[in-house]
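Hi Prof. W.,

I finally got the NADP-dependent oxidoreductase prediction working! I wasn't sure whether to trim anything, so I left the full sequence exactly as given:
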Amino acid sequence: MSAALPTTSREWHLVARPHGWPKAEDFALREAPVTAPGEGRVLVRNLYFSVDPYMRGRMNDVKSYTPPFKLDHPMEGGAVGEVIASNAEGLAVGDHVLHGLGWREYADVPAEHAVKVDASLAPLSAYLGVLGMTGLTAYAGLFEVASFKEGDVVFVSGAAGAVGSQVGQMAKLKGASRVIGSAGSDEKVKLLVEEYGFDAAFNYKNGPVAEQLREAAPDGIDVYFDNVGGEHLEAAISSLNLHGRVTVCGMIAQYNATEPTPGPRNLALVIGKRLRIQGMLVGDHAALQPQFVQDVAGWLASGELKYRETFVEGIENGFDAFTGLLRGENTGKMIVSLA
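And this is what came out:
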């Protein structure tokens, strides 16, 4: 056990289920007592925690692939921090660990749910993004779900986000003949082409997605990686070639809708083109983890894979970081820094 421990920890609680866009009054930053960890547990001082689009779904009280956040309890999510007290074999004070109890300053974590990470391999925040769940989402969604093969033309929506930016670069690294991205600002479009090596990119706010996609991919596309849904999915179905594949990873355009959103009006094309549209959850692809870490650590070390992070400082700004993410204010991974 270590010396004097903190007595309190601030943590974000969900206090009401948001209807449409989350509002400040749906959340509360509260203080909770901190105690020494029990048998088989560690106390972690969180240095960074992640805010992610999927968390919006967990704020609704609906049956889903992951249980909803409980009201008046701390919310959860990826976090990385330093062990400050240990009552568990194999984890010592000073170790850095990745775990699922974000949205708080201090976390009492069962040792089996804490994964040791190496700060000498990559910055600690990278384990929440490029080397973490978002990176594995991109890797599994492209290579396993979309059955990517060399020579494919790949289109990615939300391409400047944490997942999308990795998908495009990984496709290029593995021999895509053309990679196209869409993003929500001219600045992000420039980043996709100049820094991430996309062959073409467009700002979806500048005109109909279907027209801009046809212009960027005159010979059609083979793979569509969907982070957005809505108009983007409809446009992709129009542009997909025979035996095209779609990975449906997210539909951020629809997460705050209060009415049912219309589906693509051109679904009949799925028949003639023999398209495959498949949803994905990263949890189904844990077996890829060792290969993913090996490949991505190599690409990071060689400088072939680039990534961006957007940091919001201070736990008190956790809610603003989350709503900023939903509005697309981040480039790459959105992270709350408590360091």
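The chain has two domains: 8-129+308-337, 133-283. Does that look reasonable to you?

Thanks,
D.
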